[in-house]
Every structure is written in C-alpha cells, then in structure tokens.
Specification:
mainly alpha; 6 helices; globular
Length: about 140
C-alpha cells in the first residue's frame, strides 16, 4: 500500500508541476511524449522490480505469471494488460490509442530494460559494497 501511495503522490505532483508547462497539441508531439513516457515507465518498473522493494500487486503478479509459465516478462505483462483491456471492453471503459499501444509495447519495454537495469544495479551494488581499502580498513579497525 505504501508503494501505491508514493506512486500516486508522485504522479499527482508531476501532473501538477507539468500541467501548464507541457501540453502537446500536435499529433507528433503527443506521440513523442507518449514514447518518452513509455520508455520511462519501462525503465522505472524494471529498476523497481530488480530492487524487489515492495512490489505492487500487478508487478508481483507479473513475476508470478513469469515463474509459473516459465516465459519472459514480455509475455506475462502483456497477458495482464490484455486481461485489463478485455475488462475495460466488458465494462465500457475508455479505450484509446494509448491504451492499445501500452498493451502492445508495455511488456516489451519492461522486458527490454530488465536485463539492463539488473546489470547496472548489480554493478553499482557490488561496487558500493566492496571498498578498495577494505582489507586495510579491517586491519586498522578497533
């Protein structure tokens, strides 16, 4: 719940700050903003999942489906998005081009960024946990 609350506050804050600053009017500026958003969400979710810091239910479900089906994140996240899309159709929810692009590309971006973030985070965490002077510091500790 804490993660969802922090995410919601973050989204509200960015919407408040950027509402008057960035308002794409033309179709190609909307596509660019959507593309940047899709990449940032994929990168952020991959980083978030790799750290395993209190994943929200949809992210935990993605990992469970991936483990049960022995497939990649692309399949499991796309399957979840398809279920949500079908539910939106059943309940006459708003479905637009962005919704369809997210269903098609959301899992793909997550699957693309996951190994990259794992590699980078492993390098950062390994580098920060081992000090070059660790053996010297250990001998001089009290």
């Amino acid at each position: 719940m804490l993660t969802a609350l922090i995410t919601g506050i973050g989204i509200d804050m960015w919407l408040f700050l950027l509402h008057n600053l960035i308002t794409p009017e033309l179709w190609y500026s909307k596509v660019v903003c959507f593309g940047i958003g899709l990449v940032v969400i994929g990168l952020g979710t991959a980083t978030y999942l790799d750290t395993n810091f209190a994943p929200i239910p949809i992210d935990r479900l993605t990992l469970i489906i991936q483990e049960l089906t022995r497939t990649n994140l692309f399949f499991s996240r796309t399957l979840i998005y398809l279920v949500f899309l079908i539910m939106a159709m059943i309940f006459n929810g708003p479905i637009g081009v962005g919704t369809l692009l997210t269903v098609c590309l959301g899992g793909l971006t997550l699957n693309y960024f996951m190994p990259i973030t794992k590699k980078v985070l492993d390098r950062i965490l390994t580098h920060s946990s081992t000090s070059p002077n660790y053996d010297k510091d250990k001998d001089h500790s009290i």
